[in-house]
Amino acid sequence: ASFADLAHGLLPAVVNVSSTIKADSPTMNEEGQGQLPDFQFPPGSPFEDFFKEFLDKQGRNGGGENAQPALPASSLGSGFVIDADKGYIVTNNHVIKDAQEVRVTFHDDTTMEAKIIGKDEKLDIAVLKVDTDKKLTAVPFGDSDKMRVGDWVLAIGNPFGLGGTVTDGIVSAQ
Questions:
Q1: pLDDT score of 123 more than 60
Q2: Which pLDDT score is estimated for 174?
Q3: Of 40, 67, 41, nearest in space to 53 by CA
Q4: What gap in Å lies between CA 150 and CA 20, rounded to an integer?
Q5: What pTM value is reported for the model?
Q6: b/e per residue 112-145 (b: at least 16 CB within 10 A)
Q7: Residues 137, 65: Cα–Cα separation, whole Å
Q8: Cα separation, 79 vs 106, whole angstroms
Q9: Neighbours of 82 (CB within 10 A)
């Protein structure tokens, strides 16, 4: 058996999650535009020049002739279907925090609206729901009590809408 076989079977259960941030969110300014947290690089930091153009475009570096208004904030991440019949999807809370709209895109490029069912900020987890007649594939849960240090693990995601990304690792501690 190959990781490719496992990935092929699970990729349909992995989704890209995108959200737009509410206008009254602390991450938005009065104009309803996304804003970066306030920070400054230490004087002489090599990162100051590196990020100058980016900060100028965000209007965060004293403006300048290249300054552009900030775009509405959005977030991207991965998720996976945990209940194919009910349309439940798990993602990270930080991906949907303060979201006005949440959309999921499946492996076949089908995109649909999702509702936030529950979330836990401390655990950084959220449950979404999609209402669809589309046949979904769910990820089966394993038995974590049987996991041992040294076992191989596979991580599949779709964080930037790149399609399914796959990587492997080894359980290093319990």
A1: yes
A2: 82
A3: 67
A4: 40
A5: 0.71
A6: eebebeebeeeeeebbbbbeeeeebebbeeeeee
A7: 50
A8: 10
A9: 17
Q: What is the distance between the alpha carbons of residues 36 and 30, in angstroms, rounded to a whole number?
A: 13
φ, ψ (nearest 5 deg) of residue 9? -75, -30
For 62-106, the pLDDT digits (tens) are 545 554 455 567 788 999 999 999 999 999 999 999 899 999 999
**Residue 73 is encoded by which pair of tokens?**
């904030």
Q: CA–CA separation, 90 vs 117, rounded Å? A: 10
What count of residues does the chain have? 174
Token pair 């999609």 is found at 130
Q: Between β-strands 14-21 and 74-83, what pairing exists: parallel, antiparallel or unpaired? A: antiparallel
Q: How many CB atoms lie within 10 A of CB 100?
A: 13
Separation between Cα atoms, residue 90 and residue 6, nearest integer Å = 19
Which runs of E-coded beta strand occur in 96-143?
A: 99-105, 111-113, 115-120, 125-129
